[in-house]
Design brief:
Bound molecules: flavin-adenine dinucleotide
Largest sheet: 4 strands, mixed
Structural class: alpha+beta
Number of domains: 3
Distance between the termini: 17 Å
CATH topology of the largest domain: Butyryl-CoA Dehydrogenase, subunit A, domain 3
Helix content: 40-55%
Strand order of the largest sheet: 1-4-5-8
CATH superfamily of the largest domain: Butyryl-CoA Dehydrogenase, subunit A, domain 3
Shape: globular
CATH architecture of the largest domain: Up-down Bundle
Number of helices: 10
Length: 386
């Protein structure tokens, strides 16, 4: 496989890096402290075409491939993971499935404005009693004549309070085993939709994460995405794309924390010189650099497979598991290399440490990634393939 990036991919990475360094890095600490969602910066990101990166230009998107998209997420993660997660959700698990499974009429109405950057999208799969066990969700969409009526609650919805529309997964056929669930495009401002509690999080504090409830929320049939019963397939396919993106976000968080540590050990002096001259610390930096490099190669492979139209479930799970666990190890070590200064909010490294933590939890925990990988490994072993 050729790992060289194309001129377009390099250009996107450079453009996002330039924007992030100028507009995001100087403000990310304040947004985090004040738990402030940076609406103006998101308006700029929308104008730059970062809401619908992989959406074809005919539907208002930037028409990029998944590799360019992941490179952009890495750059955002490197400066501010909160900004990165909202961009990741709107691209991977809102725009991508609406583009892939929607009709032209749905794309016109629910994809074009988001891809053009007018509003963010959200993904409402998890519920208070169903996270890892997403197939066990209970939000109900009951067919009544030409309409569906939605009742239930969703939890942990990234951008729930600031999105224009969300993809909501609900039970349409409680008697079915495999085709219980369907996907619906639901505008945030719609009768029967209430955005509730905003979570007070350890990290990603400027991203809003909300509970959302549906109470006799009436939807015409044109809100159904794909066919009735296709919901779980749509959710799992979206998450395969999403996990490559979360891997890139995690690599970005690791890269950002590593750079802070690398610079700090060259400035901080102890025992008559910079602490970076101590071999023990140099080995730590080498370990961090290797983990980042491996994570980057893994997400590039997961994204490349998807760009080629191949199934990337196993590769995306491997990339997500490695990159997210590595981001936590790297951010931990970056705080350690800062000594006491790593433990106070005057230094950005503590934000990276807090932000890294969630990457092993959302879009499937590490334990769930291991289940997915083990299933794939055993299936290939039985089939006698590598
Ligand atoms: C900041 C944040 C943003 C999020 N954004 C979104 C979003 O936009 N949309 C959305 O739908 N969801 C979102 N989520 C939800 C997230 O995907 C879930 O939290 C995650 O899937 C885990 O589900 P849970 O919290 O219910 O934990 P549980 O499923 O209750 O898991 C608890 C523990 O049990 C383990 N476990 C569960 N089942 C198994 C098993 N079979 N084998 C081994 N171990 C197991 C888990 O790994 C975990 O360690 C977000 C979460 C957070 C924290």
């Amino acid at each position: 496989m050729d790992w060289g990036l194309t001129a377009d991919q390099e250009m996107i990475r450079g453009m996002v890096r330039e924007f992030a360094e100028a507009e995001i890095r100087p403000n990310a600490g304040t947004w985090d402290k004040e738990k402030e969602f940076p609406s103006e910066t998101f308006a700029q990101l929308g104008e730059l075409g970062l809401f619908g990166m992989v959406v074809p230009e005919e539907w208002g998107g930037a028409g990029l491939d998944g590799v360019a998209y992941c490179l952009a997420l890495e750059e955002l993660g490197r400066t501010d993971a909160s900004t990165c997660v909202a961009i990741s959700v709107t691209n991977s698990v809102y725009c991508a499935p609406v583009n892939k499974f929607g009709t032209d009429a749905q794309r016109e109405r629910w994809l074009r404005p988001c891809a053009k950057g007018e509003w963010l999208g959200a993904f409402a799969l998890s519920e208070p009693e169903a996270g890892s066990d997403a197939a066990g969700l209970t939000t109900r969409a009951e067919r009544r004549g030409d309409e569906y009526v939605l009742n239930g609650s969703k939890a942990w919805i990234t951008s729930g309070a600031v999105c224009g529309a969300m993809l909501v997964f609900a039970v349409t056929d409680p008697t079915s085993d495999k085709r219980r669930i369907s996907a619906f495009i639901v505008p945030r401002e719609h009768p029967g939709v209430t955005v509730l509690h905003k979570e007070d999080k350890m990290g990603l504090r400027s991203s809003c994460t909300n509970q959302v409830s549906f109470d006799e929320c009436v939807l015409s049939c044109d809100h159904l995405l794909g066919g009735e019963g296709d919901g779980l397939k749509i959710a799992l396919d979206s998450l395969d794309g999403g996990r490559a993106g979360i891997s890139a976000q995690a690599v970005g968080i690791g890269q950002g924390a590593y750079e802070l540590a690398r610079d700090y050990v060259q400035e901080r002096e102890a025992f008559g010189g910079p602490i970076g001259r101590f071999e023990g610390l140099r080995h730590e930096l080498a370990r961090m650099a290797i983990e980042i490099h491996a994570g980057r190669l893994l997400y590039l492979r997961a994204a490349t497979l998807r760009d080629r139209g191949a199934r990337n479930t196993r590769q995306a799970a491997i990339a997500k598991l490695h990159a997210s666990e590595a981001a936590n190890r790297i951010a931990y070590q970056a705080v350690q290399l800062h000594g006491g200064y790593g433990y106070v909010t005057d230094y950005a490294v503590e934000r990276f440490y807090r932000d890294a933590r969630v990457t092993t939890i959302y879009e499937g925990t590490s334990e769930i990634q291991r289940l997915i990988i083990a299933r794939a490994v055993l299936a290939t072993a039985q089939a006698g393939t590598a």
